[in-house]
Design goal:
two-stranded antiparallel ribbon; 4 helices; 3-stranded antiparallel β-sheet; alpha+beta; flat
Length: about 150
């Protein structure tokens, strides 16, 4: 199981690529003359955890729904009008489960965005493996030819 801080860090890293329009103004707003100061783009986002009521039917209780407290994670960002949601995961029984759901959501969205960019563009030789994708041209040659690089590394 991943740590809570690791899950939060990866969700924010995905968000930087998913929502570049949110990241740009944040970096400009916080830029300064101190060249030694680095503000990570991921600070444009925060993650809120909210208590929610989860209901499910128990097989033992003859389809009488059971309700219990759970968690739902939201990826948020600030606007002049206040805090807004950029993404949300499914409700889960634990904080870790809620964060893992939000990570799956941002990861799938990021993968979908990247594959849309590659569709029909002649970028490499993409092949599906176990739900993921590998550029076989890079695997065989060491580099993809779309960048004008020739030969293997």
């Amino acid at each position: 199981m991943a740590s809570i801080s690791g899950l939060r860090e990866q969700i924010k890293a995905n968000a930087v690529h998913l929502f570049p329009s949110i990241v740009g103004p944040h970096i400009t707003q916080h830029s300064g003359s101190n060249t030694y100061l680095y503000i990570p783009p991921s600070t444009a986002f925060d993650i809120a955890l909210v208590n929610v009521t989860i209901s499910r039917v128990s097989r033992i209780s003859d389809e009488t729904p059971e309700s219990y407290l759970g968690y739902q994670a939201y990826l948020t960002y600030q606007t002049p009008a206040g805090c807004k949601r950029a993404a949300q995961g499914e409700a889960a029984e634990s904080v870790e489960g809620a964060l893992e759901s939000l990570l799956r959501t941002t990861g799938r969205a990021l993968a979908g965005n990247m594959m849309d960019v590659f569709k029909g563009e002649g970028f490499g030789n993409w092949r599906e493996y176990g739900g993921g994708f590998v550029d076989e041209e890079v695997s065989v040659r060491g580099q993809a030819s779309e960048f004008g690089l020739e030969g293997a590394v």
